[in-house]
Amino acid sequence: MTVIYTYFIIIRIIMSNPDKLKENQCKLTFTIVVLIFLFWALFGGPHKIQKYIEPLNEQTVLGVESAQGEKSILIQSIEKSDDFFTLFKAGKSFLESGKLELAIASLERVVELKPDFRDGHYLLGYTYLKSYEATGDYFVDNPSDIAEKTNLEKAELSLLRARKLDPKSAKILELIDKIKQAKK
After folding, report:
1. Residue 106 exposed, middle or buried by CB count within 10 Å (0-12, 13-18, 19+)
2. How many CB atoms lie within 10 A of CB 90?
3. Mapping DSSP to helix (H, G, I), strand (E, B) and coil, where does residue 129 land?
4. Model pLDDT for residues 18-27, shown as the tens digit of each residue
5. What are phi and psi of 5, to 5 degrees?
6. With a threshold of 0.70, does the pTM exceed it?
7. Phi-psi bin for 17: left (phi > 0), alpha (psi -120 to 50), beta?
8. At what angle do helices 2-16 and 25-42 cross, to 10 degrees?
9. How far apart are CA 15 and CA 121, in angstroms?
10. DSSP secondary structure letter of residue 17
11. What percent of the residues of the chain are helix, what percent strand, and what percent coil, each to the nearest 5?
């Protein structure tokens, strides 16, 4: 706060002498820019300011905690978001808390937004595998539509995409082997 107070004193000194105002115009401009930056930094930058700009009743992926389990609001928020990294973090968080449906929705949006994001495909495949383990769904031979695929098949597809992006990853190969064992 003393830095801000010092800048206010400098501005007052510069403004008090109108004859030297043109000489000090560069200093004044620099001081104002520094003050704006300091206020921006003190109040948390764009992320903290954003929450005051957005309407309070609109749910976003950044505010998933405030929806307290309302899946429809969260899924709508996920579908509207274009920030793949925030969606990835949200998907990870949902997976850790056992909310597999929300994790899948988030991670599907991640790979839709960023198809070359290996970790997105890997985590989506892992989440589908967890969902398969939780629901015990069955394996269907060659379904015609992806919507008809089981979680095990979707897991395999996601992991094969991840393997295509990173063929040497041991953790991807390990999960693919686990799927092959589950198919038997």
Report:
1. buried
2. 25
3. helix
4. 666 566 666 6
5. -60, -40
6. no
7. beta
8. 160
9. 59
10. -
11. 75, 0, 25
Lowest-confidence range among 54-63, 82-91, 101-110?
Answer: 54-63
CB 110 within 8 A of CB 91: yes
Kindly give the residue spans of alpha helices, DSSP state H, lying in the chain.
2-16, 25-42, 45-53, 71-80, 84-96, 100-113, 118-135, 151-165, 170-183
Indicate if the alpha-carbon torsion angle 112, 116, 122, 123 is positive or negative.
negative
Work out the end-to-end distance of the chain between its first and last CA atoms, rounded to an integer number of angstroms: 67
Average pLDDT, the chain: 75
Mean per-residue pLDDT for 115-125?
93
State residue 137's pLDDT score: 65
C-alpha distances (whole Å) from 119 to each of 39, 54, 114, 158, 183 are 37, 30, 10, 10, 24
Query: What is the dihedral sign for C-alpha 178, 180, 182, 184?
Result: negative
Q: Which residues have a Cβ under 8 Å from the Cβ of 161 and sit 6 or more positions away?
A: 111, 121, 125
Question: Is 55 strand, coil or helix?
Answer: coil
C-beta atoms surrounding 144 within 10 Å: 7
pLDDT of residue 116: 93
* Tokens at 8, concatenated: 């206010």
Interatomic CA distance for residues 179 and 160, integer angstroms: 11
Which stretch, 9-13, 70-74, 169-173, has highest mean pLDDT?
Answer: 169-173
